[in-house]
Amino acid sequence: MSEEKLLNRSDYKCFYSISTRWTDNDIYGHINNITYYSYFDTAINQYLIENTSLNMKDSPIVGYVVHSNCNYLSGISYPGIIDVGIVVKKLGTTSVTYGIGVFKDRENRASAYGEFVHSFVNRSKKKSVPIPDNILKSLKQILK
Amino acid sequence: MSEEKLLNRSDYKCFYSISTRWTDNDIYGHINNITYYSYFDTAINQYLIENTSLNMKDSPIVGYVVHSNCNYLSGISYPGIIDVGIVVKKLGTTSVTYGIGVFKDRENRASAYGEFVHSFVNRSKKKSVPIPDNILKSLKQILK
Amino acid sequence: MSEEKLLNRSDYKCFYSISTRWTDNDIYGHINNITYYSYFDTAINQYLIENTSLNMKDSPIVGYVVHSNCNYLSGISYPGIIDVGIVVKKLGTTSVTYGIGVFKDRENRASAYGEFVHSFVNRSKKKSVPIPDNILKSLKQILK
Amino acid sequence: MSEEKLLNRSDYKCFYSISTRWTDNDIYGHINNITYYSYFDTAINQYLIENTSLNMKDSPIVGYVVHSNCNYLSGISYPGIIDVGIVVKKLGTTSVTYGIGVFKDRENRASAYGEFVHSFVNRSKKKSVPIPDNILKSLKQILK
Questions:
Q1: Residue D1 has pLDDT above 60, yes or no
Q2: Burial level of C3, CB count in 10 A (0-12/13-18/19+)?
Q3: How far is C143 from chain D (nearest CA, A)?
Q4: Contact A42 B22 (CB under 8 A)
Q5: Residue range C54-100, pLDDT digits in tens
Q6: Running DSSP on this structure, what letter comes out for residue C28?
Q7: Which pTM was predicted?
Q8: In a 10 Å sphere around its CB, with 0-12 CB exposed, 13-18 middle and 19+ buried, how is residue B106 labelled?
Q9: Cα distance between the two ends of chain A
Q10: In this predicted complex, what is the ipTM?
Q11: Hey, which CATH number is domain B9-140, 3.40.190.150, 3.30.230.80, 3.30.230.10, 3.10.129.10?
């Protein structure tokens, strides 16, 4: 886990807009803590699907999540659109650490930020493998 | 439950765009059956929040869901944006039946359609009450 | 959609206990309307997995949900365990209609009840097919 | 964030059994990474609700989640029951850090483990406050 805080929009390389949902709100009327992680993997997987040949359904090599964390700074509520910024913080041989920031519409300071680590695995052999070249290339494009 | 099928975009009065999420996909790679209902109440509550004084957190009178149904016609998958159309099919004294249609981007024929019934209730007394005037007025604006 | 109301425990053939979750609660402090459908397919799929050779991941023939509905009679809240009763209401050649009832611990009257329709499909050909024999046999065991 | 790894059942003070759900499974047939966090706050909130006067709906002082993290060691799949162990790792004046471990039935080694930090806040003033005495007392009972 890196301790570096990525708090501003300028810390991120690529953004996705996600519409909040009524059920995202908890009993306090704020997006619940769990839902942020669904924003995280929605943004990261969209980047991978659109920029690599990764196909979660059939690819022999896939990225399994081995770690995630989130720091919650200020509340967000449905309804509304949020922007999710992603960046590659660390690129290893078999794994990648993404930084993710969740921003309210038009705000520059993150409402929440965190990390997500994908470890690449040969699905049938269940063994760790190097990040495939075409994925590596796409990850480098959003490397910090 | 009305048997009338609202299959086309022209059957609906008001639309909301919702971004699909990675976790919406099930083991078959399609949006799972449950998630459609989260599209339903996201669209309906957004209409109510934006067009009436309804405040889910503090309003003394709120709409409780007493019935919902959905018919699944064709699969949708993350990633992508869907359009959710809503219309008021039936307006009673204390309850309202919404029709909802879920459309893939640029498709005119619904991928799924269903109903959602709100019954208005005095929250503290837990008693059925007439639909408040300002909500009734907004519901009439999208009456079929 | 059948109009028959299955309101009592004695209307169901098989029960599963499900633990409620903190996030099941909505802003009103009750299990939200969507979550009931996750109870429905958790119970039905568990019956199928435990009593047939159905394997959602690899089976060439799978059951797709083509319709679902739910009637909400009284609120349930986390924390606590609920019992979900299932029964086969209608058994066709290619599809099955389940009845489902959600019961609070020790209550005989359902808090919610609804239906769920599986249509069996050849996954690769995407064509409707007769319910496989071993599944048919298991479904008959919980036929109303 | 503490780096201490709590990997065994004996590292935890209190356990809750949670039934997995069909929708917990992702496209790979394993519980998806997000759902673990719903296990976390289901277990922690159940402990607080059962052992303190905390009432999420009406209490003037509530615990907001300010940080969470999870390390995923081995896959779990629906159907089945999991055990969630909790322990208080760090008890500050205004916040508490819980350790959480997710265990498969009868396994001693965690499938996943992580942390969850509650910061106590006066809801109307939105200001950090000391942990109320009766909650502090209950948290001490599961202090590592």
A1: no
A2: exposed
A3: 22
A4: yes
A5: 776 778 898 999 999 999 999 999 999 999 999 999 999 999 999 99
A6: T
A7: 0.95
A8: exposed
A9: 16
A10: 0.94
A11: 3.10.129.10
